[in-house]
Write a structure and sequence with these properties.
Layout lengths: L14 E6 L1 E8 L5 H11 L4 E5 L4 E2 L4 E2 L1 E2 L9 E2 L9 E13 L2 E12 L2 E7 L10 E8 L2 E8 L4 E8 L12 E6 L5 H11 L5 E9 L2 E2 L5 E2 L5 E12 L2 E11 L5 E5 L7 E11 L3
Antiparallel strand pairs: 1-14, 2-11, 3-8, 3-11, 4-8, 5-10, 6-7, 8-9, 9-10, 12-13, 14-21, 15-18, 15-21, 16-17, 18-19, 19-20
Length: about 280
């Protein structure tokens, strides 16, 4: 597989996860609030600190986002573009926001595709600068005893989400139905998900998440050669095959030129670039 060199020492643990009890979420985003404020209110009302929410159909104005870019120096292996601020109301076609905490405050990390006056675009939503224009009911999964916490990551020199148990809570037992998980650089995303599920005895699951890949290889032969990308899992699942978990991931991805690609990933040839954050929702047979 392709290998990307980050500035710091590689963490020996290439994946991390915490188990918890999933809370189905359904709440309305309030107009006039920034996206992060509106989502944080919905999570707080459900007593949750971490999880994910789908932002499909959300209309916002103003709207801000970035796309992946090459780094201008050796401090990072990849970086972000300048900020894009399309005119008028922008409607999100599909997006996933991973929700956690940073500096003890609610924080979200969101990738998606949106429709602008100039056509469809994809990238990393700047939630504190994007404002909800119209009310919309959203769905997702929250967690009360575990969360994602933004922490300095020596390997990549970024501050990244890490799944952690909340104070006084046990986030290590897979009994209640869901995992928050992270995959580190240079690990194939499908194989990493399968290994996480195997470790927890999960044979069937729905996979939600976002991250970055170092180039992309699709089942239909399409290739994305950009070393820095932003990725959204639009449909993800794990099913048991011959007694082993097998992942199938359909994704959307944007490269450093802003080109958007979609399709099913090849297993074993799609290494993570910087990070990948996941909510693994178990499905009963």
């Amino acid at each position: 597989m392709r290998h990307i060199l980050h500035p710091g020492p590689a963490n020996q643990e290439r994946t991390s996860d915490c188990a918890g009890s999933p809370v189905p979420l359904r709440f309305i985003l309030e107009p006039g609030l920034t996206v992060d404020e509106a989502v944080a209110r919905g999570f707080a009302a459900a007593g949750c600190r971490g999880g994910f929410v789908a932002l499909d159909g959300l209309r916002c104005e103003p709207f801000s986002y970035v796309i992946p870019a090459a780094s201008s120096d050796a401090r990072h292996a990849a970086w972000y573009s300048h900020t894009f601020e399309p005119d008028g109301i922008v409607e999100i076609e599909r997006a996933c926001a991973i929700v956690g905490i940073r500096d003890e405050r609610p924080f979200l990390h969101c990738h998606g595709i949106w429709n602008t006056a100039d056509g469809p675009r994809m990238g990393h939503l700047l939630a504190p600068e994007t404002v909800v224009a119209e009310p919309l009911e959203l769905t997702g999964i929250g967690m009360r005893n575990v969360t994602f916490e933004a922490r300095p990551d020596p390997e990549t020199n970024f501050t990244l989400f890490e799944p952690v148990p909340l104070s006084g809570q046990d986030g290590g037992l897979m009994e209640a139905g869901a995992l928050l998980a992270k995959v580190r650089p240079n690990e194939d995303i499908s194989l990493a998900i399968e290994a996480i599920c195997a470790r927890h005895g999960i044979g069937s699951a729905r996979i939600h998440g976002i991250g970055s890949l170092n180039g992309v290889r699709f089942e239909d032969g399409t290739r994305v050669d950009s070393h820095a990308t932003e990725v959204l899992i639009r449909r993800g699942c794990v099913q048991s095959m011959a007694g082993h978990p097998r992942a199938q991931l359909d994704i959307d991805v944007v490269d450093i030129d802003g080109a958007i690609f979609s399709g099913e990933l090849i297993r074993g040839d799609n290494p993570v670039c910087v990070t990948f954050e996941l909510v693994i929702e178990t499905v009963k047979p």
